[in-house]
Inverse folding.
């Protein structure tokens, strides 16, 4: 039976079609959104069947332990809590997309459709899009569990859909609250960064846990024993494990999650659609031309060519929230490096130097691709009367300076703590960022800033050279730092091998360079 045009089912069907087309287009950068082909559908079917085969063996292994074992319930609960962080990341990105980046809400709101229907459908689309990947990968485990006699595992579907709905409502409310507090333009940046932080939170927490558990192993084991005791806060009957009980098919926890999801969806869709329209109006007004200054337009040309290019590139990056979130995701992995310093009460200068080198090299490669390969007006720069060599030097400087500024404090601390080891790290970090920028300059293929996430697929050669450069410099930083601390024949050989690898990668990049205009 066909849905009535203009109704919520009709509009929801259209949104699901767009979601499916966009998911297919994201796997092929540069392609317009269209229906997945036969090859794509066949690949999806083969992967899904392979997941069922993997789930068969996994469920049989878990079933041997016993479903009543507390370890199963704790593990399943921890899995769901971990998935929530990734759900929040994708839900925030989807909320930003449906509010700001789709560009079709002006048309919908000017149509006879009620704003409540539009917002309800958009919210439902965010919830379904958030839950879909996890249902695809975890659904086979529920199916195999049911086949092997654990019908309660089919509760995975309502539990994941309910959890995704709650997370989607929280993400939408957070996005709209940010619009009201800081404006639509800043919300795009903040929401993208929060999404990146949420996606990397599991990694950060695991590093923190590993750090403190290694320092206080005995105390941690005693604390865990007390917490999981029969009268402890993490005992088997603790409400904290209700999500795990729901995933294992206990009726009351499943009904509780479903009721909470329904209440959150009803409240968000029914009470905030006017706020949604207000947020959209703010988003539209933020793109209008700025008001003319009271004193007239003033032009200042005090900066030189290099400074002008540097500030121009940094300004363009700061104005793009998507790029900021993707680059910020790399910076998040800097945090665990600082815990390495204090691990077991000893200074791990070798690991810290190698980590800083790897991070700066990767970050420089990303910024160099944005600045050099994704230049929006290359023809305009070529036709300018300024020397091309100076412009290229300034653009590479725009990619090299931010990573060096980022690690300035750790490098200064290393120089004070151990001058020789700090000097080695400074040299390796500087060499890594300079060669990373040169590799992109020599071998990078022109692209668009919107292809930042998928740049590795369109330029495999440069991606491989960047990775080899990072590994070579990281290995050299580790070998030199270890050699400074305790010289040995093996470390001398490792240092020579790492130095040779750096030179080989640089020479290979030079021979494979693309013609420069």
């Amino acid at each position: 039976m066909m849905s009535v045009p203009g109704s919520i089912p009709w509009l929801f069907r259209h949104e699901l079609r767009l979601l499916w087309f966009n998911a297919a287009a994201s796997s092929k950068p540069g392609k317009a959104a269209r229906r997945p082909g036969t090859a794509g559908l066949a690949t999806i079917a083969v992967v899904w069947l392979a997941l069922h085969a993997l789930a068969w063996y996994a469920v049989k292994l878990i079933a041997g332990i016993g479903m009543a074992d507390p370890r199963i319930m704790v593990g399943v609960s921890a899995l769901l809590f971990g998935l929530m962080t990734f759900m929040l990341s994708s839900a925030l990105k989807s909320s930003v997309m449906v509010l700001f980046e789709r560009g079709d809400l002006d048309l919908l709101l000017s149509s006879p459709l009620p704003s409540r229907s539009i917002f309800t459908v958009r919210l439902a689309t965010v919830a379904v899009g958030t839950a879909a990947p996890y249902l695809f990968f975890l659904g086979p485990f529920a199916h195999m569990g049911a086949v092997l006699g654990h019908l309660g595992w089919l509760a995975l579907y309502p539990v994941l859909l309910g959890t995704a709905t709650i997370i989607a409502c929280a993400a939408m409310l957070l996005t709209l609250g940010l619009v009201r507090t800081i404006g639509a333009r800043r919300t795009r940046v903040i929401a993208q960064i929060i999404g990146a932080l949420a996606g990397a939170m599991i990694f950060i927490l695991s590093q923190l846990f590993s750090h403190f558990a290694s320092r206080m192993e005995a105390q941690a084991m005693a604390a865990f024993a007390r917490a999981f005791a029969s009268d402890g806060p993490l005992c088997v009957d603790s409400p904290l494990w209700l999500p795990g009980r729901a995933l294992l098919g206990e009726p009351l926890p499943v009904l509780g999650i479903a009721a909470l999801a329904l209440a959150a969806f009803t409240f968000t869709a029914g009470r905030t659609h006017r706020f949604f329209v207000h947020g959209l109006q703010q988003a539209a007004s933020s793109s209008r031309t700025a008001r003319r200054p009271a004193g007239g337009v003033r032009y200042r040309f005090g900066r030189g060519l290099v400074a002008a290019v540097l500030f121009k590139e940094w300004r363009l990056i700061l104005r793009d929230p998507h790029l900021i979130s993707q680059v910020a995701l790399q910076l998040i992995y800097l945090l665990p490096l600082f815990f390495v310093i204090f691990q077991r009460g000893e200074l791990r200068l070798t690991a810290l130097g190698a980590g800083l080198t790897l991070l700066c090299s990767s970050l420089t490669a990303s910024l160099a691709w944005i600045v050099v390969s994704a230049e929006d007006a290359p023809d305009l720069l070529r036709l300018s009367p300024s020397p091309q060599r100076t412009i290229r030097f300034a653009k590479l400087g725009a990619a090299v300076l931010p990573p060096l500024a980022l690690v300035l404090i750790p490098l200064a601390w290393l120089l004070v703590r151990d001058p020789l080891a700090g000097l080695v790290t400074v040299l390796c970090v500087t060499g890594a960022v300079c060669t990373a920028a040169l590799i992109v300059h020599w071998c990078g293929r022109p692209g668009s800033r919107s292809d930042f996430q998928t740049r590795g697929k369109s330029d495999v050669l440069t991606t491989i050279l960047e990775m080899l450069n990072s590994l070579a410099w990281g290995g050299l930083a580790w070998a030199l730092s270890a050699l400074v601390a305790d010289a040995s024949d093996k470390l001398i050989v490792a240092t020579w091998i790492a130095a040779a690898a750096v030179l080989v990668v640089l020479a290979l990049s030079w021979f494979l360079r693309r013609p420069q205009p």
Remarks:
- The CA atoms of residues 215 and 344 lie 5 Å apart.
- The chain has 22 helices and no strands.
